[in-house]
TrEMBL record:
<comment type="function">
    <text>Catalyzes the reduction of ribonucleotides to deoxyribonucleotides. May function to provide a pool of deoxyribonucleotide precursors for DNA repair during oxygen limitation and/or for immediate growth after restoration of oxygen.</text>
</comment>
<keyword id="KW-0547">Nucleotide-binding</keyword>
<keyword id="KW-0170">Cobalt</keyword>
<dbReference type="GO" id="GO:0000166">
    <property type="term" value="F:nucleotide binding"/>
</dbReference>
<keyword id="KW-0237">DNA synthesis</keyword>
<feature type="domain" description="Ribonucleotide reductase class II vitamin B12-dependent N-terminal">
    <location>
        <begin position="47"/>
        <end position="137"/>
    </location>
</feature>
<dbReference type="Pfam" id="PF12637">
    <property type="entry name" value="TSCPD"/>
</dbReference>
<dbReference type="Pfam" id="PF08471">
    <property type="entry name" value="Ribonuc_red_2_N"/>
</dbReference>
<dbReference type="GO" id="GO:0071897">
    <property type="term" value="P:DNA biosynthetic process"/>
</dbReference>
<feature type="domain" description="TSCPD">
    <location>
        <begin position="731"/>
        <end position="835"/>
    </location>
</feature>
<dbReference type="InterPro" id="IPR013678">
    <property type="entry name" value="RNR_2_N"/>
</dbReference>
<dbReference type="InterPro" id="IPR000788">
    <property type="entry name" value="RNR_lg_C"/>
</dbReference>
<keyword id="KW-1015">Disulfide bond</keyword>
<comment type="similarity">
    <text>Belongs to the ribonucleoside diphosphate reductase class-2 family.</text>
</comment>
<dbReference type="InterPro" id="IPR013344">
    <property type="entry name" value="RNR_NrdJ/NrdZ"/>
</dbReference>
<dbReference type="InterPro" id="IPR050862">
    <property type="entry name" value="RdRp_reductase_class-2"/>
</dbReference>
<keyword id="KW-0846">Cobalamin</keyword>
Amino acid sequence: MTETVGGSSKKTATRNGAGEKRLTVNRVYTTEGVHPYDEVTWERRDVVMTNWRDGSINFEQRGVEFPDFWSVNATNIVTSKYFRGAVGTPQREHSLRQLIDRVVRTYTEAGVKHGYFSTDQDAQVFEHELTWMLLHQVFSFNSPVWFNVGTSSPQQVSACFILAVDDTMESILNWYREEGLIFKGGSGAGLNLSRIRSSKELLSSGGTASGPVSFMRGADASAGTIKSGGATRRAAKMVVLDVDHPDVEEFIKTKAREEDKVRALRDAGFDMDLGGKDIVSVQYQNANNSIRVSDEFMHAYENGGQFGLRARQTGEVIETVDAKDLFRKLAQAAWECADPGIQYDGTINDWHTTPESGRITASNPCSEYMHLDNSSCNLASLNLMKFLQDDGLFNADLFARSVELVITAMEISISFADFPTEPIAETTRKFRQLGIGYANLGALLMATGHAYDSEGGRALAASITSLMQAVAYKRSAELAGIVGPYEGYARNAEAHQRVIRKHAAANDLIRTYHANDAAVQKVATRAWQEGMQIGARNGWRNAQASVLAPTGTIGLMMDCDTTGIEPDLALVKFKKLVGGGSMQIVNQTVPRALKVLGYQDEQIEAIVEYIGEHGHVVDAPGLRQEHYEVFDCAMGDRSIAPMGHVRMMAAVQPFISGAISKTVNMPETATVEDVEGIYYQGWKLGLKALAIYRDNCKVGQPLSAGKSAKPSGETKTETVVEYRPVRKRLPKKRPSQTVSFTVGGAEGYLHAGSYPDDGLGEIFVKLGKQGSTLAGVMDAFSMSISVGLQYGIPLEFYVSKFQNLRFEPAGMTDDPDVRIATSVLDYLFRRLALDYLPFEKRAQLGIFTADERTAQVAQDYGNGDVDLEGLRTSVDATSTKAAEVEEKKPQADVKVGSSTELLELHLGTTADAPLCMTCGTKMRPAGSCYLCEGCGSTSGCS
């Protein structure tokens, strides 16, 4: 027998067992005789992570080893999140090599042990290929793999779990227990409560049942006290209720009523911000709620008919409701507080590969994994930008071969994985659900000149997703020929083959528009044809193959610009710098997109400079209006319309085994009718699940003053507390110092007076002849700064505003600590920072003394050939176009801690996002969750 892997055929050895052959692995990225680690340049870095709000150190590990092309943010997150061992002990991991080896070698050894590879050479090639891909950020496993694999902890590899609960007290209490175990392991779980009798039904003893909403209260309290994985991220969970449950209206209104409570308590003076000391009194906040609607209900909604709510044990109709009225109540609640979301039961189970083993009733917390009760799914995501060639074409063949390697590794992991409960272990080993996916779709579309909300963009996204699914199932069929199909396949063979045919038929319906999507779809078509033939002969090793997850923390690990299926958040980003500090940059995909659209270098430079100043492309010099849509983002002046998000989800859903983690953001001005329309269109377009979020609909968020999103018809009196600054005058006698300076040949003097406790309180600058305009302006400027300091404006604020300010005179100085200045003000405030700010704050601003820079360079580079003189100045003296553009950009306020906050500065409004519970940074959306760019924490799935 022969097997085709990576485009070549090779005879394979036979063996005893389910299959007739073993796997041959060909090299894709690596070179024979050269280890992947030897192909990159490694460097030592110090990871010091502080709480953005108070400056306290959250995490510190110095001398960690990473490739030189990994960003500071990726380094920080991997070091703090994934390195194992107690900090400060010899057992603590300190190199990316150790982390990758710990995981990859475990996978490879398991593959050998369980008979996946044809020869030892194939196992070694597999190990090297996986190592290369992880090292170069081509893909990443989900967080539990990095937490657990290769350690003494249980080898839990799954991030997504679905539980089951029945209508007995024993089962309900067991639900609490199992959720707690899953949360403790750093993962999330979902379940459907529809088997529990409603509050309108009787118990066998004659009393009235409590109903599922009452039991949700206990589970919510339990979840709120358990921190995932011993970290600060709270538990993530999903609670689902069927639309025909008699308590459906109570369930729908549950969280909306709690929002009313938050408003009342807030107005009474309680601290109801997210993380506030009084917010814990609010219930049902640790779960995402979803209503599971049937096709029967949706048809009744369309036709304006009645719909029956059914008793849980007998199935008889005990109440009839108006379908339109119930759907409107669902939309109203979602409009008020973003919950509940909606899941479309008919579509979900129509694409179910194993219906003979049970229906799909629930999902994981972010709604991307949907399969049998008491099951789990391990995830991995590919970085789509790694497959975009310099010529602008997507490398479909390389992508396909990469999917083969990743899906093979994911399948092997089930062979050695541990699970939180025995029922989950049994179901997962029997059906072997996998969840391959991708990140950076939004960046890929922009870089190829596609608008996110466009036919061409959706065609490319659909083609890539179809190719991923086709190759994943093709490899699953090949593995079934080696180690046998999944245990539940024989019973579900007909249904599984039917779903595979549905996927392939959807691929044939993709309408292509450009050479890129046409080429990808052609490769996908071939993979579907080959995969169906192999599957008909062997069956499939996995009941499910793919999901589209939020890719929050692992997206940062791969240095992705966008997460999951999401578009770019905004055109400007907040970037951390080596050695401390940060800067505002224009997304790197912007110039690449402009190049693809045909703009010349000079035009690109001008447009990028404009974006850096304004945060958007409207009226950018030389940019044609028909290209504006390419740069539309999730937030900003040209944000993507809600239906644009829904249409993108609909384009890729037919090629996903599970579903898509994504929240459709809606403006604050959206109406209940708009929400109702979105939920209806989700069903019509064939989605499996949908959630919306209307700006400022949550009260328990860190909102800006003056934001007062109120339900229609609501009037209330807000208590406004006015705070006034108090001037702290300097005493008659105070310490001071005078510094003489020369900048670009211009001479001057800086006099600085301080409080007795060494805080700077006044400055006087003499520059120019007495009585000249320049001298008068400098006197007025000095007086303004001095008064501001005495009113409490921090010195670091002024430093952040005036450093790098560019005007003449500029150039060389006579100060050994600041050798080059872009202006007199640039020099003055760098000098003041060096004299009056502590090292930690100066490090954030990128300002160091000559001795500090010399010591840092000596530590990092030893005695190598390094331009110490150039490194002594914190001004970049290069003359590249990119440097010139960045120098012209307005400096971000020192109080900005993330891309979300940077976007707020450009918009002049506050983004509706929670603060990170670990480091205080404002998070950004990632699928159905929120992600912290500062430390990698998420509010839901990893």
